[in-house]
Amino acid sequence: MRALEALRALVQLLRARGLATERRTGLSAAQLFVLKRLAEAPAASVNELAARVHAHQSSVSVVVERLVTQGLVHRAPHPRDGRRRTLTVTPRGRALAAREADTPPERLTAALEGMPARERRAVAAALEALARAADAPRRPHLFLEPPRRTPRDR
User: Which residues contact 21 (CB under 8 A, 6 or more apart)?
Assistant: First the structure.
């Protein structure tokens, strides 16, 4: 079945390149993807960054927390809105982002953006239908990023 072969190829791409990224950098492919997008320009909030990486805010929040913990991203109070936090890449994070090639998520994003709009819509509709039929999560984690562990999980 052609569809399964294509899905296996994409999953294999994500896993193999993701593992290589993690061995090389100590970051998951999702973390490096978010770091590189943030290195392009600071974000006024996690929501803004989530829109830039085409992911749900909760998934991006988990990734950002890990990047902050590793000293690659700095969070600071927003200058005009005390409820929000701005996100910037630290010098160490910028150096890491600059020396790394495209991540698997960047590759998939570029491939989708390079398709005609009609084809993108068809791919999206087909994948959404497949996800529904397979009872996949409605809000998946960002490109194989493991979920945040809660105290109950430990």
Answer: 27, 28, 29, 32, 100, 103, 104
